[in-house]
Model the fold of this input.
Amino acid sequence: MISPPGFLPKLVIVAAALLYLSHPPVNAQGAAVNSVQFSPDGTLLASANSANQVVIWDVATGERRAAFPALEAYVVFVAWSPDGATVASASYDNVIRLWDVASRTLRAELKGHGGVPFYAHFSPDGQSLATAAEGAEVIVWDLATQTVRHRLSPPGDIATTARLSPDGQALLTAGRGGTVQQWDLATQEVTATYDVGGETLTTALFGPDGRVVAGGGSAGVIRVFDEATGALRETYDHGVYSNSFVMTGAIVASVGGDGTLKAWSRSDGRQLYTRGAHRSIAFFVAASPDGQTLATVGQDRRIRLWEAATGRLLRTIAGR
Done:
């Protein structure tokens, strides 16, 4: 791994996940996996690793289907376009890259962030991409023209999440400080603030139906609010730093700094299970489009697939 100038091993925030980079650089034969996302049809996974690669995996077999050309910068996050044709990656050279999945080639580079981008999320229509970066900088890109459509500055000194609403009209941001902000993209003004608590939030997202907003992070507590009224509706406590969480219609699942995966029932709030998902740190969790499968990644260089309802381990992939 080629480290960018001035970057010392430190706590690095990746989208809805804080990555502890206290481990030494590793090569392509043993790279920590930083983030993972299911394709829109649920058949593939895209992962980012500390060998500066974006890799595509077959969910059913665990086989490596493709790897895009390695970069000279640490890759921290990946996101799928709604049509499954493009994967976006965010890396330590401050560049967002768009990769063509079919041809395995670089389609475009989006340059405009002054700091490291940690998160990327496509709009439902695939026409926009929201990214969050150091310096509390959030950009919404016009993908047709590959230009900046909106540039927002949420409070704090770092942005960890830029999550577009199901209708594409609003944006959630989070980062340093314990609040999630909702922005109206037409006016570029904050329309709601949700108080989650804690020093840093790693994840903010809309519920599947867009009617709730959730946030969580350094305090280990995940709170779910009514989107319209701001009323607190659900609370889940991971017990340690929550690096990332995901919410489906049925469950909330979180991975933490202790390497565990925990899940709760949204219907009654009871904890469903705790699993030792990864040695040391679990960085990120994603849910399949149908909500039936969870994927987790961590510092132990593995991708693990779990049955969402029961926590049964389905498959382990050597994520390199």
